[in-house]
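Need residues for this backbone.
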């Protein structure tokens, strides 16, 4: 009996992929205000990944027995769902192969191979439908079409063709991934390596799926019954491969976005000491952003306010004080970028004091000196407050540039 009460529901993997994609793009990354949105419209490779993920949804949905029954009943053709599902699987495996080719070689280098693959697999799809038209398959088989018609002329060729096409695409794709990961010709690290590892596991499972199906079919040819390999074991393996494959293609892009967000958040927090100093001195220009602002917008807003504030202080920046403050930091055992940050912080603090008591300087320090060292100033305010104060008192007293606070 061709029952499907205990079938593996591929809609759950599809729902998982869609939920993860939607949550990541629309909620956690604030998609409409995020650089990932911009890359989606400008990066052909990222668009291809999204297209592949979208394609995985109908693949997962239409391979389920309820949808197979619906297709057969809607069209009025027994088993029409079989070539339809085989076509979806063939197109999906081809799309995966093409994406890996372009991903690895680049669009231009991969163009000849892409054209060849498309031509071959388009012919396979046409052949699938021609074989189905020629085959005599009057009895609807929801779960075991592969094994039930394993000895039927033309249906037999139809089944073997789709499995071989799927297996070949899987073997070529897994080979490309293996070369990418282990040949030493490519530098693969981070999120990309993680995505490729998931894809490698996915294609091992794909080949296992094909092997299980073919084993069950060959068993039918030899008069044995191993249908459970095709109806129970293979669908479980296939569902797992769909999830891993989708995540493997998505991980490098989402991972890079997470990395960018982490860097933006770190930069935002790194500027906090400088932001707080200007705020407490009443010298911060503009309005504060809301706490709910996207991290990229919040960073841009904070950076812009700080820069505008320093530009406003530009007439009071003491060039001589910067030189003497940097020399003084050496006496405190500080050198390199830390010395630049401390010297810049001393000049900034002196300018904050001088803005209301002194007239603009004729020999003012170019504000670009401080604008190019915002993070160094913020680090100095956080890590070396006592050194800044000592250097400031000594240098301001010796140069007489401004009164000490």
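Answer:
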């Amino acid at each position: 009996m061709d029952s499907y009460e205990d079938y593996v529901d591929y809609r759950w993997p599809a729902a998982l992929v869609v939920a993860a994609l939607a949550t990541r793009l629309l909620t956690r990354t604030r998609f409409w205000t995020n650089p990932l949105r911009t890359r989606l419209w400008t990066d052909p490779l990222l668009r291809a990944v999204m297209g592949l993920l979208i394609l995985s949804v109908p693949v997962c949905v239409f391979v389920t027995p309820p949808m197979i029954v619906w297709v057969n009943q809607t069209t009025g053709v027994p088993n029409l769902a079989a070539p339809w599902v085989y076509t979806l699987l063939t197109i999906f495996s081809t799309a995966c192969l093409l994406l890996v080719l372009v991903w690895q070689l680049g669009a231009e280098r991969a163009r000849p191979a892409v054209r060849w693959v498309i031509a071959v697999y388009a012919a396979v799809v046409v052949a699938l439908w021609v074989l189905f038209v020629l085959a005599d398959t009057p009895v609807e088989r929801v779960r075991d079409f592969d094994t039930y018609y394993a000895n039927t002329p033309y249906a037999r060729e139809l089944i073997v063709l789709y499995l071989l096409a799927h297996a070949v695409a899987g073997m070529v794709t897994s080979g490309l991934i293996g070369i990418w990961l282990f040949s030493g010709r490519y530098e693969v690290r981070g999120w990309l390596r993680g995505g490729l590892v998931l894809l490698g596991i996915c294609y091992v499972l794909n080949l296992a799926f094909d092997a299980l199906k073919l084993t069950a079919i060959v068993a039918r040819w030899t008069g044995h019954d191993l249908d459970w390999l095709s109806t129970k074991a293979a669908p479980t393996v296939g569902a797992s491969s769909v999830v891993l494959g989708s995540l493997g293609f998505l991980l490098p892009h989402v991972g890079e976005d997470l990395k960018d967000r982490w860097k933006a958040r770190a930069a935002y927090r790194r500027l906090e000491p400088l932001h707080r100093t200007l705020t407490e001195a009443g010298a911060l220009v503009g309005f504060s952003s809301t706490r709910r602002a996207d991290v990229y917008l919040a960073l841009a807003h904070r950076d812009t306010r700080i820069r505008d504030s320093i530009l406003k202080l530009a007439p009071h920046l003491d060039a001589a004080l910067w030189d003497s403050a940097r020399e003084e930091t050496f006496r405190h055992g500080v050198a390199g970028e830390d010395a630049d940050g401390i010297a810049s912080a001393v000049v900034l603090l002196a300018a904050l004091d001088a803005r209301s008591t002194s007239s603009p300087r004729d020999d003012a320090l170019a504000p670009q000196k401080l604008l190019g060292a915002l993070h160094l100033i913020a680090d100095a305010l956080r890590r070396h407050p006592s050194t800044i104060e000592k250097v400031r008192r000594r240098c301001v007293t010796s140069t007489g540039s401004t009164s000490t606070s």
